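User: Predict the full complex structure for these chains.
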Amino acid sequence: MMGRGLAGSGFRRQVASYSFLIPWLIGFFALTVGPIATSIYLSFTDYGLMAPPQWIGMENYIRIASDDPRFWTAMNVTFTFVLLSVPLKLAFALAVAVALNKGLRGLAVFRAIFYLPSLLGGTVAIAFMWRQIFSRDGLLNRGLEYLFGYDGPGWVSSPSTALYTLVLLAIWQFGSSMIIFLAGLRQIPQDMYEAASIDGASRARQFFKITLPLLTPVIFFNAVIQTIDAFKAFTSAFVISGGDGGPIDSTLFYTLYLFQEAFVNLHIGYASALAWILVIIIAFFTALSFLSARYWVHYDD
Amino acid sequence: MLYPLLWMVSSSFKPNDEIFTSVSLLPDKITLDAYVRGWNGLSGGFGRLFFNSLLISVLAVIGNLVSCSLAAYAFTRLRFFGRDFWFALMLGTLIMPQHAVLIPQYVLFLKLGWVNTILPLVVPKFLAIDAFFIFLMVQFFRGLPRELDEAAIMDGCGPWRIYFKIILPLSGPVLATAAVFSFIWTWDDFFAPLIYLNDIQNYTVQLGLRSFVDSTAQSDWSALFAMSTLTVFPIFILFIAFQRLLIEGIATTGMKR
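Assistant: Here is the predicted structure of the two-chain assembly.
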C-alpha cells in the first residue's frame, strides 16, 4: 500500500508535501542534529577556537569530576536554587490559585496582576531592580530601618544571602504556574465539593481529599516545567552578580559557569563536556518526573 | 506584589536624592530629567538600541510565523512518506535543552562570519527552530475541519493554495498568540544577544541596559530606573493589549512564563 502511494501521481504529492517541510528540515539538520553530533565530539577534545580540536578522550569529564572545585560549587548553587525555588513557587502558586478560585470578584484583574511579574521577571530591568531592592542602601533596608530601626546588611553583596534573593525573585514569578493551576481547578466538578459539604467534610479536608488528588496531573506538569526552567535560569544571576556569579561564587549558577568557560575563557571542548552534563541532568529530572508520575498522579478514568 | 514594579517606575520620575530617602511611591515633584540623562547615557544613545531590538523582534516574529506554520501544515494536513517519523523528531527537539547545541551553533556562526551581526538571532527563526510554535500550531490546525481541504481538492486546489486560501485565513488566533509570544521572548532575550553581539551599536536594549548599569557605577539611580522602565514598556503595552490571549495561551498549552 505504501509502495503504491509513493508511485505515479503520488510522487508529485510527496514533493509538494516536502516543500512545506524544507525550512524545518534545514534547521533540523544544520542547527540541531549537526550541532548535537559536533557537541558530543567536542566534549572529548581540547579546543580553544584557534587550533583544531585535539582528541583527548574522557579527560574533560575526568577533570570535571575530580579536579574542578568550581564545577561542584556550581552544582551546589544550582541544586540549592532548584530545590528551594521550585517547591516554594508551586506552593505559593497553588495557594493563590485556590484562593482566587473561591469565586472572588475581579478574578480577571487579580489573575493579570499576579501574572505580570512572570512575564517581565526574566528581563535585565527586573533583575537590576531586584538588585537595588536588596542592596546595602536598597529599598528593603530602608523599609526595615523605617519600620524597626534595623540596619540590614547588603543582601546581594553578602555570600550567605545572595542566592536567597534569587530564590525570592523566582518565587515572585509564580504567576504562570498559578494560571495553569486555575485552569486545572476549573476542571474539578463542583458537585464533588457539594457532596463533601453535605457529608460534613471541612474545607481543609476537602482540599486534601478532593482538590489535591484531582490536581496532581497539573501539579506534576508544573513541577516538570518549573524544574527545567530553574536549571536553565541565567539572566537574573548574571545581572545581579555582575556577570561572575559572585560574591565568592555564591550565585554561580551552572549556566553561568558554562557561559564563562565557553564564551569568556574559550575552553570550547571543556565547556561542551559541561554542557552535556547539564543536558543529562535536565533529561534525568524530566524522565524522573515522568516515571514517578504513575505512582502519585491521578488521571481521570 | 506589584510594589517593586511600581517603585521602579516611580523612582524613574524622582530626583536621585529622593529615591532612597523615601519609600513612598509618589514623587514629591515629577521630573523627566532622568529619562533625558538615561537616553543619552550610552554612547550613541538608546534610540539605536531600541531600533535594533525592534528589528530583531519583528524579524523573529515573521520568521516564526512563516516557517512554523509551513511545518505545522505539513504535519497536520498532508500525507507523505515519513511524516510520523519527522513529527516524532520534532517533538524530541521540543524537550531537548538548548545547551546541547549552543556551543557548536556558536562555532558554526563564527565560521560563517555571522558573529556581531543580527543573523544568528534571526535566521534560525526562519528555519522553524522554535519547535514550540510548530506544536502550538499543530494543535490548532488539527481543530480545523478536514472537509474544507477535501472540498478544495475537489475544486482542483493544490496544497499551497489550500495553505494560503483556507488554513492561514482561519488561523488568526493561533498566529496572533505565536506572534505576541515570539515578540516578547525575543525582546526579553539576553543570552543570545550576549554571546553574538559585541559592538555597542549592534546591542539590543537588554544588552544596552546591562552595560549602562555597569558603566554608571551605580550613581545615577533615577536614570537607570528610567531606562529599565523604558525597556519593559513595550512588553507592558503588549500585556495590556493581549492580556486575554496571553493568559489563555498559558492556560491551554502550559507555556512557560
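Chain A has 14 helices and two strands.
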